[in-house]
């Protein structure tokens, strides 16, 4: 008993105004903290896998649980336990203050991370449950809405963390007004792009998945973001264009076309008799007018130019489809029929040539 009393007396001695036994518990807790968090991580994983089997129907949890939520959750629970430990042990005021301050900041960051993950799962839930029933236009707004929500979450979390550090957030925000001009100048492009994205979303010149042509770029819209729009070009590269530029440029929406136009110049040799050329033009126009895949009023077959090496016949028609592959197939069949018709009428197509006349001088 005397030995125990002597040991206790030693442990009651203060080091930096804190008893040694409290230092011992604190060191032990800090050493065991990673192990405890690892235990919670594995436990949450098992619980997540178990409860995911019992989720039925389209609800938020169905989309939230598959995300990697065990990491922030294990941190949140571990930090809550650490805060409770600090309160119970009643350490010296300064140590308690800074320990709680650090713990609360880390806790706030992990809560922000968890809510941030929640916004992604909310996006999936809204896409499947709510916006899908409202049509494609609402789905187009969804990525912008989710990104806005993420920015709000991060900004609010940052302000709460500053408040926990003892910084007067109201005074800080008021102080930012002094540097407002500098911030406005620095963020000029960002604000311009933001207004550009709002213009695109409300004006709706295109939506995600549309094939467009803007500037010298042609491709499919993959994403409309805060700052820029991403386009998958026809050579499969990903092009990022600032929204402020897109908003003021001419945009050609190729997906909204009701038909696809084909325009060709048939170059006929000058040696072709005029009567044979007339027959060819007449039969060609009759043939095109008979095609169900073409818009009848769009068919044009006219002899329209004497070029340097050929008689030019304008051939133009609109194919009644917006599908690229189908349009190309119809056009291919028509061109093969035209070539066969030209062979039948003995019409020769011209190509750039030069004639050399040699005169014998006597």
Polypeptide structure, described:
The structure is a single chain. The chain has 362 residues and is of the alpha+beta class. It contains twelve helices and ten strands. It has three domains: 170 residues, no CATH class; 66 residues, Roll (SH3 type barrels); 85 residues, Alpha-Beta Plaits, CATH 3.30.70. Strand 4 and strand 5 form a beta hairpin.
Task: Show the helix and strand layout.
Layout: H1 2-12, E1 14-15, E2 18-19, H2 20-52, H3 60-64, H4 70-89, H5 93-134, H6 136-164, H7 169-176, H8 180-186, H9 188-203, E3 211-214, E4 217-224, E5 228-233, E6 238-242, H10 243-248, E7 251-253, E8 260-268, H11 274-289, E9 300-306, E10 311-319, H12 324-344
Antiparallel strand pairs: 1-2, 3-4, 3-7, 4-5, 5-6, 8-10, 9-10
Helix pairs in contact: 2-4, 4-5, 5-6
């Amino acid at each position: 008993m005397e030995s125990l009393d002597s040991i206790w007396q030693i442990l009651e001695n203060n080091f930096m105004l804190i008893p040694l036994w409290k230092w011992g518990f604190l060191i032990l807790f800090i050493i065991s903290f990673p192990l405890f968090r690892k235990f919670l991580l594995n436990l949450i994983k098992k619980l997540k896998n178990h409860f995911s089997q019992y989720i039925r129907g389209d609800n938020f949890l169905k989309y939230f649980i598959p995300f990697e939520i065990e990491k922030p959750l294990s941190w949140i629970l571990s930090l809550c336990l650490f805060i409770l430990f600090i309160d119970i042990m009643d350490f010296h005021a300064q140590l308690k203050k800074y320990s709680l301050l650090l713990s609360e900041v880390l806790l706030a960051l992990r809560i922000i991370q968890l809510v941030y993950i929640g916004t992604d799962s909310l996006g999936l839930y809204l896409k499947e449950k709510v916006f899908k029933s409202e049509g494609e236009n609402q789905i187009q707004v969804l990525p912008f809405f989710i990104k806005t929500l993420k920015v709000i979450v991060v900004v609010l979390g940052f302000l709460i963390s500053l408040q926990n550090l003892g910084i007067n957030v109201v005074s800080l925000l008021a102080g930012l007004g002094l540097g407002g001009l500098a911030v406005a100048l620095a963020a000029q492009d960002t604000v311009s792009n933001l207004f550009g994205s709002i213009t695109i979303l409300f004006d709706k010149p295109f939506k995600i998945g549309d094939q467009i042509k803007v500037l010298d770029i042609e491709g499919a819209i993959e994403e409309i973001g805060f700052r820029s729009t991403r386009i998958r070009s026809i050579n499969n590269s990903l092009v990022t264009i600032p929204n402020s530029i897109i908003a003021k440029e001419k945009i050609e929406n190729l997906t909204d076309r009701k038909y696809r136009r084909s325009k060709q110049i048939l170059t006929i040799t000058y040696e072709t008799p005029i009567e044979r050329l007339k027959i060819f033009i007449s039969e060609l126009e009759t043939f095109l007018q008979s095609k169900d895949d073409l818009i009848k009023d769009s068919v044009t077959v006219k002899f329209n130019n004497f070029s340097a090496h050929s008689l030019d016949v304008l051939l133009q028609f609109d194919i009644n489809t917006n599908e690229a592959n189908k349009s190309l197939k119809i056009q291919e069949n028509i061109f093969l029929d035209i070539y066969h018709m030209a062979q039948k009428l003995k019409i020769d197509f011209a190509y750039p040539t030069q004639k050399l006349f040699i005169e014998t001088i006597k």
